[in-house]
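Task: fold both queries, return tokens.
Query 1:
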Amino acid sequence: MPDALKAVLIWIAIAVVFFIVEGVTVQLVAIWLAIGALASAIAAYFGASVTIQFFVFAVVSLLALLLSRPFVKKLIKTKPEKTNFDRVIGENGVVIEDISGDVIPGRVNAMGIDWSAVSADGNPISKDTIVRVVKLDGVKLVVEKNTDDAKHIQN
């Protein structure tokens, strides 16, 4: 078997390995290297030296990465998936156990669920006060007194 054919087959095998790695991963990590390996196989077919083959591999892989990565990132851009817990943010609730501040939690009923809650500003909030959920801290609500005229509670 001629040396040029061996080099072509080696580069094709390398490309196949990179394509397999790409198929197994989900982050587009090896596709550019596979393209570079295919370009090097073409260079080997036309009799390029091993040095030129590696140069073609490096340059084509880098160009493939630089030219396609921004486009591919836009196509596969993922948005964080909201959970049911996120729905409680911005909702009103009723303090069912005094909140003594931002350290010792009290209890709030929001959306019909009993939650552990702390005050957003660190001030105590007494029982039966209507509050608005500002954010989640783990499984604990961070709340503030609701100053809106419409103090509707969703259960």
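Query 1 returned. Query 2:
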Amino acid sequence: MDMHGSLRTNLGRVRGLGAAGHGSDHFLKQRVSAIAVLLLAPFAGYVLASAVGMDHSRAQAWVGQPVNAGLLFAFLAAAFFHLRLGVQVVVEDYISGKAARMLLLGLNQFLWLGLSLVAALALFLVAAREDRAHTAEIPPPASDRASSDQTGSV
């Protein structure tokens, strides 16, 4: 033990590693993801509150807008990442068997990645479907309509 009462070695102090080996990096990621979730949560709450009275096509059009889809994706990504970090801490702190801990940490990683990919794919498909719906409904330019009206009336 050094004169300041720390149990960490000089090398551990320089690298910023704690007893678990990943130190302040995990702590910082957890705090940054929590701040991201807190900043994006009002938007997500607004989405849920405004979707109550929407029909399917109107909700799809709303989610299909790039800014809305991007903010929803950012919220879901931050929330799932924060969830993964929180579950990792619980597993590391309260599961004593090494095999069970490793299995649960692997499952946690797999589920986080799977949920994130499904959410991203769902948002992409909704946005792409909305984009196709708009291109199918766009009328031809006015110059094309005028030329077809002139040829049809002759």
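Both queries returned. Flag for query 2: The chain has six helices and no strands.
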